[in-house]
Structures are given as C-alpha cells and as structure tokens.
Design a protein that fits this description.
With about 450 residues, this protein is an alpha+beta fold. It has 3 domains: about 120 residues, Glutaredoxin, CATH 3.40.30; about 35 residues, no CATH class; about 260 residues, no CATH class. About 35% of the residues lie in helices and about 20% in strands. It has 12 helices and 18 strands. Strands 8-16-11-18-9 form a 5-stranded antiparallel beta sheet, with helices on one face. A 4-stranded mixed beta sheet has the order 2-1-3-4, covered by helices on one side. The longest helix has about 35 residues. The protein is elongated. About 30% of the residues are buried. The chain binds glutathione (GSH).
C-alpha cells in the first residue's frame, strides 16, 4: 500500500518528510494541508492528527505523527537502505542525530523561523500585555550583554527584550540582586559594568565667586551689567545607570528615587485639564510614596544647570505665599518639597535628568542664585563642583515611571534636604530619538 502523507511542503517538518521519502525512494501519496490557511487545525484534519501539526502519515493503521518517526517507519517498511542503515552501530549514530534534532536542534532553530518568517507572513502582532511567558523566555537571556548574545543581529528580539521586558517594574525590581551577585567584581574586572551602566557627560556647575552674587535678571536694568550668571563651570562627570539599584534610592537618603507611576491621563497639551485631572493623581501618588498628609502642586520645565529649586529660606517663604493663614500651622510640622518628574507619551532618551546623591553633596556645596524680577527677587541653589559628587540617571525612563526629587526639607536631622539635579546630553542617545516630552511638578508635602 502506498504511504499516505498529510502535509504542507513549505513547513520545516513537512519538507523533511518529503525530501526524506525521496532519499529513501519510498512511494507515497501526497495530501495537501494548507498550513497558512489553518487547515491543520480544521475538524477534518484533527480526525487524522489531533495534535494539529503537520506532517502526519497513515499506512492502513493508526496515524503516525513526528516527522522522524514517519521516515524511520518508511525506511523499515521497505527493508531499509543506506539512508537508514540496518547495521546497529551505524543506525545508533543516525538515531542519535534524529533524537538530538527532535529534542534540541529543531526548537533552537524554530523560534527564529517563527519570529522572522512565519509571524510576518501571518501578520501576527506581539501580545500587548506581558505574560509569564515573556518573563520565562527573557530569564535565560537576562545578562544578554555579559553573555554576548548577538542581539544586534535580531532587532525584534532585541527590542522586545530591551524595550518591553527590561522596562517592566517586576524585571527592574529583581535586577539588583543579579547585578550584585553576578556582575559586581567580575564585571568591573572585565569591563562589563562600564560598558553599559555608566556614561560620561558634561554638567553645568557654577563658579562660586562670593562675595560677588550669582544672579539672573528678568527685566532691563543697568544693575544687570557685569553680573555673575550661573552655569559657567562645565565639568565632565560619570553618570551611572540608576536602574541597577532598583528601588534602593530614597528621597530621604540620596534625595531622589524612581517609582512606578502609571496613568491613563493623556491630555498633556491642555494645561487646565492637566491641573484639574492630573494634579489629583500626582497628589495621591505622592501621598502613597512619602506618606504626606497634604500636598500642593505646580508645574514647570527642567533646565540644563546643576541646581536645586529651593533654598533654606525660599522653601518656607513659598509655603507662606501659597497658603496664607494656614502656613504658620503647617510650618510648625515637617514640610518637604518633592518634585515629581515624569515622561509623557514616550520613553525619554534625549536630555535625561541627572540627580546628585545628597550623601555626597553637603550643604556647603550649594550657594544661592538670585532671580531678579522688577517687583521681587526669587532664589534657588546652584552648586559648586566637587569630585565627590556622585551622579545617577535613569536611562530610557518610560511614561510608567516617575522620578521623585527632594528640593527642600524642613528637618535637619541627617535626612536629605536639597538634591542637586540637571538635565544633560546623553552621548548614547540615538540621533533619531524622539524629542523629550516630560513634565515636572513641584509639590509640597506636609506631614
Ligand atoms: N515534532 C514534530 C513537529 C511538528 C510541527 O510542529 N509542525 C509545525 C509545522 S513545521 C506545525 O504544524 N505547527 C503547528 C502550528 O503552527 O499551529 C515533527 O517533527 O513532526
């Protein structure tokens, strides 16, 4: 009887069977099962092969699935030949390869076939929400840089890993232990940490020319002549990737931290709507994060100058300006000003924010910058350079995150009070990276 085969010759294992039967010289009857039309999942075919896979074969008995089993059967049925030797030693070698192919080789190659050939043909999109399958598959390549996995040759795989998996909070939360155990000493010894965890960039510090004041004028005045303006002391600094420390950073110790902050809000172009609808979200977020009882919020754009938004004097003054009668009572308790900085729409690649670890920047490194307006003078802190400053940033931060930054603290008990920060040019930013879209809220937390 002629062997009935059911297959689609364009699929891996179907081709294997067709080519193998030709090699063996086996006569067969071909039944086409259209893989791309999904016929292998149709009711008729499932009666032949309930596994819904091609190929399968029949020879007046139960269905034979497994391409290698079909070939072995065909060879044995017809008495065998050199393509499937009868000699036991020789056959053991062929069997070894057949088993290896089925258990190891096929699955290693098949994933690439599916990703780069089958999925584009079927036009299937990646799943939107991550599942435990994403985590499971990513785990084997979690040190892909150190593993030297050739991801550059596989852009979709790389994008999935770096843009989807590595941005997940659960992934970042579990990263620190891996770094510590596997990458710390070994990594510095072979340069791995340097390769991907820190960059060099220039930050604009300010020279301290006291007693001459550092000022900016926002109106025409003769007094503006010959003033000392800020940002005249650029220094190249090393800025490590803060994601490795996961959620270790805290606004009360280092003066900053990164936290998950997901929002469904998207009407960023309308300031009134931001105020009415998004401010309450910021307030709730902050209450949860720092345990504040009450908060007050306003909005501003970030700058390329090492600075801190408030001084020991301007913090309480701002509370009085904003909260009038209530202010004295509120100021009798702990007050902290915390900026909430957040990407909107896209991942931030261009001009990210660098934060200086407060434990490396004593109060003596800060001095005042005066803002001269016609009717009043404002002030904040700028910083003089020190090689002790330790900077951090959160590269490619997503809109599902926010950076919290302490810009004033009433308590003087070792808790972080003023965190210096600056936007900067990241030399690793892609030339075609989208323009940064971020928003910064100045909030006041009353405890
Ligand atoms: N181990 C089986 C694998 C069969 C298999 O997975 N075939 C693929 C086509 S190459 C299939 O039918 N997949 C089902 C699907 O994609 O839905 C064999 O060697 O025959």
């Amino acid at each position: 009887m002629v062997l009935e085969v059911y297959l689609d010759p364009c699929t891996v294992n179907s081709r294997k069977v067709l080519a193998g039967l030709e090699l063996l010289g086996t006569e067969y009857h071909y039944n086409h099962v259209d893989y791309f039309a999904g016929e292998h999942k149709g009711t008729e075919y499932l009666k032949i092969n309930p596994h819904a896979t091609v190929p399968s074969a029949r020879d007046n008995g139960p269905t034979i699935t497994e391409s290698n089993a079909i070939l072995m059967y065909a060879a044995d049925r017809d008495g065998g030949n050199s393509a499937y030797p009868k000699d036991l030693q020789k056959r053991a070698q062929v069997n070894r390869w057949l088993l290896w192919e089925a258990s190891v080789w096929f699955s290693s190659c098949y994933v690439y076939l599916v990703e780069f050939v089958v999925k584009p043909l079927l036009k299937s999109e990646p799943d939107q929400a991550p599942t435990i399958a994403d985590i499971s598959i990513a785990a084997s390549m979690h040190l892909h840089k150190a593993q030297h996995l050739p991801l550059d040759q596989h852009p979709q795989l790389k994008e999935w890993m770096t843009e989807r998996v590595e941005k997940l909070a659960c992934w970042q939360k579990t990263q620190a232990a891996v770094e510590k155990a596997l990458l710390s000493d070994k990594a510095t010894a072979n340069g791995i940490v340097n390769e991907y965890t820190q960059i060099q960039s220039t930050l604009n510090y300010t020279k301290d020319l006291s007693p001459k004041r550092t000022e900016l004028y926002f109106y025409d005045s003769n007094e503006a002549e010959g003033i000392h303006e800020p940002g005249d002391d650029a220094h190249e600094v090393t800025i490590p990737d803060g994601w490795h420390r996961g959620q270790d950073f805290s606004v009360d110790k280092e003066g900053f931290s990164s936290r998950n902050f997901h929002t469904g809000f998207d009407k960023w172009e309308d300031e009134e709507t931001v105020r009415a609808e998004f401010y309450p979200e910021v307030v709730n977020f902050l209450k949860c994060q720092v345990g504040a009882k009450q908060t007050n919020t306003s909005q501003r754009a970030p700058v390329m100058l090492v600075h801190c938004d408030y001084t020991a004097e301007s913090g309480p003054l701002r509370v009085r300006q904003l909260l009038g009668n209530e202010a004295e009572d509120l100021l009798s308790r702990r007050v902290a000003f915390i900026n909430v900085w957040k990407p909107i729409r896209n991942i931030v690649e261009e001009r990210p924010l660098a934060m200086c670890d407060v434990t490396t920047s004593p109060r003596s490194d800060f001095f005042k910058l005066y803002f001269r307006y016609r009717e009043r003078t404002g002030e904040n802190y700028v910083m003089r350079f020190s090689p002790r400053h330790k900077w951090w940033y959160f590269p490619k931060i997503t809109p599902d995150h926010a950076i919290l930054l302490k810009t004033y603290e009433s308590e003087n008990d070792g808790c972080a009070q003023f965190a210096g920060h600056s936007a900067f040019l990241d030399p690793t930013t892609r030339p075609d990276a989208p323009t940064r879209e971020s928003i910064e809220f100045r909030t006041i937390a009353f405890f």
